[in-house]
Design a protein that fits this description.
This protein has 4 domains: 78 residues, Endolytic murein transglycosylase (Dna Ligase, domain 1); 79 residues, no CATH class; 104 residues, no CATH class; 45 residues, Double Stranded RNA Binding Domain. The chain is built from 13 helices and 6 strands. The longest helix has 30 residues. The termini are far apart. Functions as a peptidoglycan terminase that cleaves nascent peptidoglycan strands endolytically to terminate their elongation. Keywords: Cell inner membrane, Cell membrane, Cell wall biogenesis/degradation, Lyase, Membrane, Transmembrane, Transmembrane helix.
Length: 347
């Protein structure tokens, strides 16, 4: 009797173990299957802050990308990661399996977006680009921007204090977070370039070099011209000559500038007009990149003191005023291009 009982218990236990083994094999087989057979689709999917795994699995089921949402929950419980999924935007390939999908959510392998702060743009234009990006949150109004500047210890005009670059971020990151990164990046780049500067420069501080870099950034998009333009400006400063660069006049006019500069504008005195005032303007006039900063701190040696736009995005450099006036007449009047432009033609 006891023998039969033990045999029955053993048989029942064995059956249960067999069933459990088969269930485990089935679970692993299912979890190892792609989300969608014979498909190269990619699902754009968002896990919102506060979403539970149950809610996420059910939404994937509703979208037709998960046959058995309860199995996803079971896999998460087995790995003890049910509460460890990360919010964000995801790109989910149909070819990955359920294990890989769960790992994607747990590791936070989210989709990144980018925003570009353009070299030569103003801080106002950069802030507008950030505020208008649909994937960035908490746009900054004027008051909030001033609060941020105070926290960054930026007094007065913040022009030039943010590094122009491509910044990557997750959906929901704030405008402020990108600006903080851009300010940190500018601090680092300016310090690196300042430490590697040439001797006998007319700048007392890195900030003055940044002002010069912004003038160079606005004057040319031709990378090879930047050191030579820097050389012209440095020599003019050394000789106590006015810089006489149009972008400073335009910046000083603000919203009044409508695309065309006149002689009257050149004579109108503002703190930024380098036709009426000696030395550098009081602040940068644009966001300057590393190449422009490097050029400001490593000007090309030479004797040129003037330059004029050729109309193809490059400039003619002259040593004397007489030569410069001839070049102005040639490129701006006599041989002025029908397709005159101030920037290089896109390649």
């Amino acid at each position: 009797m006891v023998k039969k009982l033990l045999l029955g218990l053993f048989s029942g236990f064995f059956s249960l173990m067999l069933l459990a083994g088969l269930a485990w094999m089935g679970l692993n087989w299912y979890a190892d299957q792609p989300l969608r057979e014979d498909s190269d689709e990619v699902l754009e999917f968002t896990i919102r802050p506060g979403d539970s795994l149950t809610r996420v699995a059910n939404r994937l089921f509703d979208a037709g990308w998960l046959e058995y949402p309860q199995v996803m929950r079971l896999l998460a419980r087995i790995d003890d990661v049910a509460g460890g999924i990360h919010a964000g935007d995801y790109l989910i390939p149909a070819t990955i399996n359920k294990y890989e999908l769960l790992q994607m959510f747990v590791s936070g392998d989210v989709r990144y977006y980018d925003v570009v702060l353009v070299e030569g743009s103003t801080v106002a234009e950069a802030l507008q680009a950030l505020n208008e990006h649909e994937k960035l949150s908490q746009p900054l109004d004027a008051a909030a921007f001033q609060t941020l500047l105070a926290d960054l210890d930026i007094d007065g005009n913040p022009e030039g204090q943010f590094y122009p670059d491509t910044y990557f971020f997750e959906s929901g990151d704030t405008v402020e977070s990108v600006l903080r990164r851009a300010n940190d990046r500018m601090t680092i780049v300016l310090a690196e370039e300042w430490d590697a500067r040439s001797d006998d420069l007319p700048y007392k501080t890195p900030y003055e070099a940044l002002i010069m870099a912004s003038l160079i950034e606005k004057e040319t998009g031709a990378e090879w011209e930047r050191p030579e333009i820097s050389g012209v400006f440095v020599r003019r400063l050394d000789k106590r000559m006015r810089l006489q660069t149009d972008p400073t006049v335009i910046y000083g006019m603000g919203d009044r500038y409508q695309g065309r500069i006149t002689r009257r504008m050149l004579r109108e005195d503002t703190p930024y007009n380098t036709y009426t005032r000696h030395g550098l303007p009081p602040t940068p006039i644009a966001l300057a990149g590393r190449e422009a900063i490097n050029a400001a701190l490593n000007p090309k040696e030479g004797t040129t003191l003037y330059f004029v736009a050729r109309g193809d995005g490059t400039h003619h450099f002259s040593e004397t005023l007489a030569e410069h006036n001839r070049a102005v007449r040639k490129y701006q009047i006599v041989e002025r291009r029908e397709d005159y432009r101030s920037t290089l033609e896109a390649q």
